[in-house]
Specification:
- The chain is 80% helix and 0% strand.
- By secondary structure, it is mostly helical.
- It folds into two domains: 31 residues, no CATH class; 166 residues.
- Helix 3 runs antiparallel to helix 4, helix 3 packs antiparallel against helix 7 and helix 6 runs antiparallel to helix 7.
- The longest helix is centred in the N-terminal third of the chain and has 33 residues.
- The protein is flat.
């Protein structure tokens, strides 16, 4: 067991093997790999990607940013040169996977346009379309912030790209403010999406 748990790669592989066991159980119980299964599978990928994305968003905002002032200056380069770039890699690709799988899922289930128009195509009468649409728009705004504001500014702040030294503090502040914006939006986004699946 230690050989599995001491390696992240082995741990992740073991997790997928256990998921495969669950899939084989589903098939053994008479389940089929039909449309409903594939819709579930895309939702599973969407949720898993979202956990990676929002988990790292909350890590940045609840752990890293508030505690950076407490870290001695000589130790800060370890965060900026090692931890933050790795976390930002999974953060931005988690965001990309979340939105891609979310759009595929909405298309598969036939509500993509209804949701993105906030129910306008149905006279604003289908509350579920409005709820999931609000969640999808908030998620889309958050995805945009990650790829087109947070990541470009983090590259400057962390010195991943060449920029004047005086640009780094401004870039760091911009990245932080948009990260906080995404944290703010993540709360109603999750409420809208979960409510669309459970109370409408």
């Amino acid at each position: 067991m230690a050989a599995i748990l001491t390696s992240l790669r082995n741990t992740v592989i073991a997790g997928f093997v256990l998921a495969l066991v669950l899939l084989l159980m589903f098939i053994n119980w008479g389940g089929t790999l039909d449309y409903n299964f594939w819709a579930f599978f895309i939702r599973w990928l969407h949720v898993g990607s979202g956990v990676m994305w929002i988990g790292l968003l909350w890590y940045f905002n609840f752990v890293q940013i508030p505690n950076m002032p407490k870290i001695p200056d000589e130790q800060k380069p370890a965060i900026g040169k090692v931890i933050a770039p790795a976390a930002l890699f999974w953060f931005r690709w988690g965001a990309m996977a979340t939105i891609v799988f979310g759009i595929i899922l909405a298309h598969m289930n036939g509500y993509l346009l209804d949701a993105y128009t906030l129910g306008a195509l149905n006279g604003f009468e289908v509350h579920k379309d409005i709820a999931i649409g609000i969640g999808m728009w908030l998620g889309t705004i958050m995805w945009f912030n990650v790829w087109f504001v947070i990541w470009p500014n983090q590259k400057i702040a962390l010195g991943i790209v060449d920029a004047p030294a005086d640009a780094k503090p401004k870039a760091a502040r911009t990245a932080m403010l948009f990260s906080r914006t995404n944290t703010l939006l993540s709360i109603p986004m999750l409420f809208a999406m979960v409510s669309a699946q459970n109370i409408y």
